[in-house]
Amino acid sequence: MAELKRRTAVLISGRGSNLGALIAAARDPAYPAELALVLSNRADAAGLDRAREAGIPTATVESRPFGRDRAAFEAALGGKLAEARIEMIALAGFMRVLTEGFVTHWSGRMLNIHPSLLPAFPGLDTHARALAAGVRLHGCTVHFVTPGVDEGPIIAQSAVPVLPDDDEAALAARVLAQEHRLYPAALAWAAAGLARLEGGRVVLSMAMADGALANPPPEHRQGRNPLPGPAALPTGMA
Length: 238
Description:
By secondary structure, the protein is an alpha/beta fold. It is 29% helix and 21% strand.
């Protein structure tokens, strides 16, 4: 008998760039998460069309009619999630801050991806802030969601070099490519129980990479870099 897949909802507010990566990964019969619902707080979110084209059920709970009544909005969200028998949630550009009650209910079962190497640069405008700070490494983070914005226990991170001629758009594109690799892998690990929340920390049950990534590489001389290319993603991520 085939293993049961974890019924997963992807919550979006816009185009669903990471949603596309999750859809592609979930086409693999061995992928441990089933994308059972794409739910948006905006009826005009382009990601809803992407989900429909992939044959994934969609739903909308418009946030504007609820005004500041976050509890009522989240109760409506919860109703849609219950109807679809959802077991896990993946936030993918969902532009609403969720209440402590909602987050606590989904503790250890709700993931988010953030475009920085947390805890650096939580919040918005991460790429511009990274360039302004002069960091040499930037990237993305997948974490379990907790009541604090972008503060949840980290499941996985992927780093990219910040190049001398980078502007915000170039750096964002490099990070986004890594988001599309990292999020499907992290969701798979969580759905399979290989990444789980215990005592406020993430416990990983998998082989771990033991290399290092430096920028510029310490051995860089005369324009040549004898080190291998970017560090490989941990086992199962590629």
